[in-house]
Amino acid sequence: METSDIYILCIEDEQEVLDAVVRDLEKLEEQFPVETATSAEEARSVIEKLLENGKKIGLILCDHILPGDNGVELLIELHKNEQLHASKKVLLTGQAGLEDTVKALNEAKLHHYIAKPWNKEDLMSVSVELLTDYVIEQEDDVLPFMGTLDAAKLSEFIRSGRNVSDS
Amino acid sequence: MKSGFLGLTKTQLAGLVLGVFGLFLPFLLPLASLSIAGHIGLGIFFMAAIFWMFEPIPIYATSMLVIFLQVVLLSSQGPVYMDAELPLSEPVALEEGQWQIPSSALKNDNTVLLAVEPGETESISVYVVDRNGQHVIVESTELDADTAIITDTGHRLVNYQPNSYTEYLGTLAHPIIILFLGGFMLASASVKYNLDKNLTRYLLGPFGSKPRYIVLGLMLVTAMLSAFMSNTATAAMMVTVILPIIAQLEPGDRFKFGLALAIPIAANVGGIATPIGTPPNAIVIAALSEYGIDISFTDWIIVAAPLVVVMLVFAWWLLLALFPPSISRFNLKLEGKLNLSPKAVGLYAIFAATVLLWVTENQHGIPSSMVAFLPVAALVTGRILDKSDIRKLPWDVLWLMAGGISLGIGMDKTGLAVWMISGFDWGAMGYITLILTFSIVAIAMSNFLSNTVTATLLMPLVISMQASGIMGDDFNLLIIGVVVAVACSLAMALPISTPPNAIAMSTGIIRTKDMAKVGVIVGVVGVLIILAYAVFYWPMVTN
User: Fold this and answer.
1) pLDDT per residue as tens digits for the range B424-465
2) Which domain holds residue B135?
3) Number of domains forming the structure of chain B
4) Which of A143, A159, A167 shows the shortest C-beta gap to B237?
5) Domain count, chain A
6) Domain of A140: which CATH number?
């Protein structure tokens, strides 16, 4: 499996929780390198570094309660960055109230809300589906992702997107 | 993976340099028997072949470059041949049988070139009586007062009559390209209205739930669809059908390899069955039609379909033998409902009418390319396909084919094709050796190259073998053409061999070594089956 230039970014202030997220996404890490941050501040610098090196961020998993700016504020801010517009954004939290969540949904185009404590399979399947959507929207060649992501959806895209043909 | 200069890999970079060098190479070699235009044609051929192999630029871009270079360098309106005129003079009669001619007309081997027809010369030997500076006095019985002697034997018009640039540009709308356009539009509309999926659902029904018959059903349906749609789109669609089946197997079950390999094999093989099945067929049909052999849609099916059936049955048997089914029945759930909106029904009618007219070409005589314009016109008239659908058609494939056809025309026109095969004693090769050679070379090449490119590179050679008469009466141009087309589609040993292979491999279900093993067996057996058909069946149906 070749490592792609699409990264997964996990933002979570509690180290054990962060480790758990990364562990649960282990199967994806081979193809989608995982970067972590423990605060909004650190997240910004990680993102800046990645984008500077020409990397893409396919999926952002973000906790709500963070030191400094909270998760919803951070996601809204990131969504304003054009290079992160296509990135799939997930709020992974137990503590975001309805108001914050609605705000994230409307202003950061939040793609998914995962309540803590999460179930490993759910986290994995949500991540796979969102990354599948991301590569369909952003990548010219989706074939390299069929082994890791949703192969049926990607095949359907090849069929209906009509962007691969005989040669 | 991509790095370095211009974002190219090292191989691509080497290809770029080699290709550009190849364009000029013929002018660095002593190729006395080849015309100047032949040199240009050979340069273009070298460049195209190298670019197609190493892909420093996309293969369709190489095709466009070929047409561009031909228009500029070979056409009568291009800068090279725009004002060209062959310098001629008539011999001056002296005493009996002796003639005075310009000394520049006499070649070193004491021959003189006479202009016979535009683009054609005749070489005659003369006896040199005397030389005096500008003139030579020669003796020959073949000269007379009206003979047109070429006074510059190295002139670029010697043995070459340039054709109009419109002939090269016209390949973009060559009848076979239009045939494919019709096919592409039908396929695109079928996908849009899910006709391909619904057909699959109906057609797979009768095969029941026993694994071995499901595999057979999958292969037959895949082949049937890919005979009319692109092999790639068919394979992608069928992958969505087999994934739920594979999910019913235990993780370590080897039967899944067989299932996943059945799709690309059937898609590749199915493309052989009709002229529009896959681009190499088009290259072969176009090349043959340039030579005056017109194959109807019906004829092609009669020639190719029986081979497809045998290949499929063999592949089915092979896959079941290598990867036997482990469970006794599958739950084959195919959901969906036939789309009965007016537009979808319109598509069904257009599809049925077109295919019916295609397969009955021999009965009514309307050329298939003309029929192909029925779906082109009807699908847009009925707004079954709209602007955005048209933009999504695989234009790159049409461009790739057009460049291939154009390259063939140029090679024929410049005398390059005949020259290329003249260095080899083909006559010593029997009919069977010849068929084996072409099929093995084609399969070997197209395992690594695009199938279309392989057909493009081989067909000019096939045509010139006929044109030069080197093979004598044994040679059946039509059969060798079919051999090339079929062999190009039977290369499937590697993920890169064909897009359907790449799709199947990408699912992560199969390993490269499984694909290689099955692909090599299919290739070897394919050569033998081609040989059997070429000896026993094709001579019967092509005469």
Assistant:
1) 666 677 888 889 999 999 999 999 999 999 999 999 888 888
2) 88-150
3) 1
4) A159
5) 1
6) 3.40.50.2300
